[in-house]
Amino acid sequence: MSNEQRSNEEQVKQVKTDVVLVGAGIMSATLGALLKQLEPEWSIDVYERLDAAAAESSDAWNNAGTGHSALCELNYTPQNKDGSVDIAKALNVNEQFQVSRQFWAHSVESGVLSDPKNFINPIPHVSFVHGESNAKYLRARYDALASNPLFEGMEYIDSPDEFTRRLPLMGTGRDFSDPIALNWSDAGTDVDFGALTRQLLNYISGSGGTVHFGSDVRNITKQSDGTWNLKIANLRTGAKKTVNAKFVFVGAGGGALHLLQKSGIKEIKGFGGFPVSGEWLRCTNPDLISQHSAKVYGKASVGAPPMSVPHLDTRVIGGKAGLLFGPYAGWSPKFLKQGKLTDLPSSVKPGNLMSMLGVGVTELGLVKYLVSELAQSEADRVETLREFAPNVIGKDWELVTAGQRVQVIRKKGRGGVLEFGTAVVNAADGTIAGLLGASPGASTAVPAMLDVLQRCFGDKYAGWQPKLEQMVPSLGRKLAEDRSLFREIFDWTSQRLQLEQTSRFAQPSGV
Question: What class does this enzyme belong to in the EC scheme (predicted)?
Fold first, then answer.
């Protein structure tokens, strides 16, 4: 090899960039799109292990695409001992989703995103219960939420005729001697986060950024000048290179924990992860799909974790309607759908050992739930579905594997606690950050990444704020506390995202 060849090879092996985003999912894509608008001159490189964008948790068939806004998810509105309903988490989740809607609407206006129908569509969000005590709970939930601006327009329905009219697949063959109740909201959406991710990544690459597929980040090490060296292997050619970055974001889904551990930042100590896989029944009968147009969420069974809430979901993927029911829990030690069997054991470190052991003791209910789910037969799964749609038969449905989720284990006292949300973890100097956890996940990508910006770029955030307020007009304000502002913003986002909901707050003529 000549000296010139060696020099060229060395140049290829060592690359400098301003920002590295690990993982080509919705989190990295959102952060990259934000940074490209805030700092157009910064170089941004996205490294993805797989050969396609959003192929893990962000993929349309790997998540429910609910657009989590707490309109229908009953785990966000727990009942207190006195029978009242706590709506604090529901308000917070809805506020976060409104932030995401605003960023997407602005992105359509500015050309960052193109056809919104490609990734978001209006679908009613519905809470469903049966049994007298559950119906009373749902009435109390409605009473607590309906007067809040964020939940304006919600309906309470307990009429069998109206139930069947709106949800024919669920009403046909139902024994209505068992009382039913619905909380119905026309403000819901179905989101294809895979399609959204691809549009955002196209914007990044079209604005000077680079997306590298088939590139596995093997290690991350801090340098004396405060930058980070990433060891990256090209899985297609076997070539290896070192990339030096001023800022690193680890948006690698279940793979984030391992990479943050390799970085050595003290903030990751005590964090662990518990993997849970999911499965869906996917409808293969077009006639049944046409009889249901809603996302209907029920109540989790006693002792089951929040992530197990059953739901019968209309999906819109590639412009075509589909229907899912689930999730049915599975289990694998893998942290990614296309991960390794050693993912869980290799994540156990001295810094999180007590957290992991502590959860093993306190979450026996989760273990029992997983065992019972794994023991289910095909007939058992169909029987669970019949609680929602009494007349279904197994041959009209196929079992598909959804994405792998890694729930956050956080240190608490001497042990640890399992959390069913997301957590941003960042180094004190703001040079590296990552996102751990799952639901509501993708729906809160924008507020989560705004959090990353504020934590990691504190010296620049104030200067960015005017631009951020153009992207998210309600930034720093609570829409739940300002009805007129919420109406204005909701109508604007509905119009820009073509959600056909602008009439929801229409005033009668002459008013």
Answer: oxidoreductase
